[in-house]
Structure formats: C-alpha cells, structure tokens
C-alpha cells in the first residue's frame, strides 16, 4: 500500500478527519503537531478524493514530503507536550477507526431502517460501539423482519452498512394508513411500523384509520410505510330461507368462524346471530 500524507492547517483542522471518515475514506494515521494543524495519512489511491472533499473547506492543505516529515519530527522532539498530544490524538484516531461512527441501511428493505437499528441496539451494536465480530445472530434477527430474504453486514471508514433485501419490493411502494374493514370492536392490533390510533377494546366504524402512516419524534412528523395488522370483531344477524343446519353452513361460508352463535327458527326460515372476526393487514406476510 502506497501511503500519502497531507498537512492540513486551519481552525478546527481535526474535523477534516470526520469529513474523510464520513466519505468512507480510511485514515491510516494522524498527528497533531500544533494547534489548528493536523497531519493525516491515507492510501495513495485516495489522494484525489481527499483533495476533492477538503478543497471547499477553509483549510490550507499541502501534501507531506519526506523532508517535511523530518522537520516535523524535529519539531515534535523540541516539545514533549506536543509529542504526547500527538500520540494521544493518534491513539484516539485508531480508536474511532475501530468503532461504529454511523449506521446505514441500504437495499430494497431500506424502509425497515428503524427496525434494523433497533435489532442492532438490542444486540449491543450502536454508534461508538465496536464493530460486531459475529454477525450471524444479527442476520437471523434482521431476517425475521417482514419480507426480508437477504441480509449482509460490511464496515469501512467507521460506517457500518447493512444491506437488506425483501422478497417483493414492489409491494411496498407507497405510504397508506391501515383502516378498519368493518364496524366493530378492536380485538387485536399489532404494529411494527406506523402510529396506532386505537387499542384493543376500542369501538370503530368502517374505514376508520387504525394505524396512521407516519411517526412522531422530537424531529417532527415523518411519513412511513405502515407495517401492521388488526382483527375487528363484529355482530352478525343474518336471515336465511333454509333449515337450521343449512343456515349454519351458509353463515360459516359468508362470515367464516363464528362465536356466541344463536339459531332461531322464523317464518322466513332461520335467523343466525353471533360474533364474526374480520382481519386487515398491510405489508405483513
């Protein structure tokens, strides 16, 4: 590997390291010989990128030559304090190079970014933590999310990238709320993503919004793709011009499983009463 050094001078010169890390350029080493001056080393193949990234900043940038390095070493020897500071800064740079500075979720499953980051946090991986050595458990947890069929992890320049792919990308192309299919009572509601507006036991009307397609945070309201499901129970009262057994069979065909069934013979045939359940979901298998 051919190394290339840069002498960077200016107010807050050390922030140049952050710019390079965020641009996924690996900083091999760094020294701070004096205030508002930092010397960094990168792979030679990245030298043009470094100039392109830092040329718009208010820094004085020069390539470091061997002769310049000798002068730098002499200056460091003249000041033990500066040398100690440089060593400390170098150690900090190496430390942050081995840490997670940012987490990115990419791929067709990028809309699951918050869920993936929650999985990482629950397994001890967050900003400033060490990179996970064994990602098999993390992959299994991410793969358990709705529609996820592929997951991989990679890291470079302090950025942990999670590539998430789903089985049917076209199925989640737009944002929409989850609405009640019938009027009744919420029996169960499960929300992976979105804002629930009702709870189990609440009465709802047909087409009422159960889960809104946004989330609220300190940063404000953000539109999201809803991942949720709900079960609504509702009363059934159906008249059939049939005998009791035939009426029951027809009721099961019309409404599915029924509970609290009551069957009454009438002049018109049979009256079937009971409680049915209607399910509705968005983006859940």
Distance between the termini: 49 Å
Please report the number of helical segments. 7
Low-confidence stretches: 66-71
Morphology: rod-shaped
Provide a descriptive summary of the structure in words.
With 285 residues, the chain is an alpha+beta fold. The protein has helices spanning 15-22, 47-54, 66-78, 80-97, 113-122, 136-143, 244-255; strands spanning 3-9, 27-34, 37-43, 60-63, 102-106, 148-156, 159-166, 178-179, 184-193, 195-196, 203-204, 209-212, 214-217, 220-223, 227-240, 258-266, 269-282. The strands form five sheets. It has a five-stranded antiparallel beta sheet, covered by helices on one side. The protein is built from seven helices and 17 strands. The protein is rod-shaped. 27% of the residues lie in helices and 40% in strands. The longest helix has 18 residues, at 80-97. Residues 66-71 have low confidence and may be disordered.
Describe the protein's topology.
Elements: E1 3-9, H1 15-22, E2 27-34, E3 37-43, H2 47-54, E4 60-63, H3 66-78, H4 80-97, E5 102-106, H5 113-122, H6 136-143, E6 148-156, E7 159-166, E8 178-179, E9 184-193, E10 195-196, E11 203-204, E12 209-212, E13 214-217, E14 220-223, E15 227-240, H7 244-255, E16 258-266, E17 269-282
Parallel strand pairs: 5-7
Antiparallel strand pairs: 1-3, 1-4, 2-3, 6-7, 8-12, 9-11, 9-15, 10-12, 13-14, 15-17, 16-17
């Amino acid at each position: 590997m051919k190394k290339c050094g840069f002498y960077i001078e200016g107010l807050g010169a050390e922030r140049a390291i952050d710019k390079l890390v965020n641009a996924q350029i690996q900083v091999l080493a760094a020294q701070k010989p004096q205030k508002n001056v930092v010397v960094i080393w990168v792979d030679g193949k990245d030298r043009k990128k470094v100039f392109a990234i830092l040329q718009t900043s208010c820094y004085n940038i020069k390539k470091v030559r061997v002769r310049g390095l000798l002068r730098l070493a002499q200056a460091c020897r003249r000041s033990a304090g500066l040398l100690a500071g440089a060593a400390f800064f170098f150690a900090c740079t190496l430390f942050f190079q081995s840490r997670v500075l940012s987490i990115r979720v990419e791929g067709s499953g990028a809309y699951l970014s918050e869920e993936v980051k929650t999985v990482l946090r629950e397994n001890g991986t967050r900003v400033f933590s060490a990179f996970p050595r064994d990602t098999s458990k993390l992959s299994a947890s991410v793969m358990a999310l709705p529609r996820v069929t592929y997951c991989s992890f990679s890291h470079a320049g302090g950025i942990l990238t999670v590539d998430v792919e789903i089985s049917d990308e076209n199925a989640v192309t737009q944002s929409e709320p989850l609405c009640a299919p019938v009027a009744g009572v919420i029996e169960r509601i499960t929300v992976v993503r979105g804002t629930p507006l009702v709870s189990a036991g609440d009465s709802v009307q047909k087409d009422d919004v159960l889960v809104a397609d946004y989330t609220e945070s300190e940063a404000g309201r953000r539109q999201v793709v809803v991942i949720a499901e709900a079960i609504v129970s509702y009363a059934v009262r159906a008249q059939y011009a049939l005998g009791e057994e035939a009426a029951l069979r027809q009721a099961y065909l019309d409404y599915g499983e029924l509970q609290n069934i009551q069957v009454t013979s009438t002049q018109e045939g049979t009256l079937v009463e009971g409680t049915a359940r209607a399910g509705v979901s968005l983006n859940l298998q």
